[in-house]
Amino acid sequence: MNVSIQKYLNQFLSDKLSLRISTLKFYPVGGGSINETCQVIVNDQTKFFLKVNSATKYPNLFRREKRGIEFLKDQKIFRIPSVIAHDEIDNYQVLLLDWIEGGLKTERFWGKFGEQLAALHQITNTYFGFEEDNYM
Asked: Structure pTM?
């Protein structure tokens, strides 16, 4: 992980979340087609999900993603991670989220997922699309 981003996270987590940091570890995870994605583990216990990409290539990507995440969270249909931080460091932008541990994808899981997805699609608006352009 980029040294500037490591310093930023160390300072941010210390100042804003009052975490006394002795170790900060980064483990790459899949799922990021245009982003570098990793699990961040603080002091071998507190976990976060971190996304990093180019601030110049995809301007405001994470600011807009933050708004979309907050919209989904406000619907109270799915369990959605909280946005801990989003910022620009050097030529990078970062989005730090709560870590949600994955579970087994059982038949019950898929049934509940389908019901929740259907409920999400019942939300209507007076116009098509989201309230701002984004990268979806």
From this structure: 0.89
Q: Tell me which residue range forms the domain holding 20.
A: 3-120
**Does residue 129 fall inside a structural domain?**
no
Q: Which of 45, 50, 48, 49 is nearest to 22 (CA)?
A: 45
Answer yes or no: is 136 within a domain.
Answer: no
pLDDT 10s digits, 55-102: 999 999 999 999 999 999 999 999 999 999 999 999 999 999 999 999
> Going by C-beta distance under 8 Å and a sequence separation of 6 or more, which residues neighbour residue 11?
none
* Residue 132 lies inside a defined structural domain of this protein: no
Q: For residue 19, is it left (φ>0), alpha (ψ between -120 and 50) or beta? A: beta
78 within some domain? yes
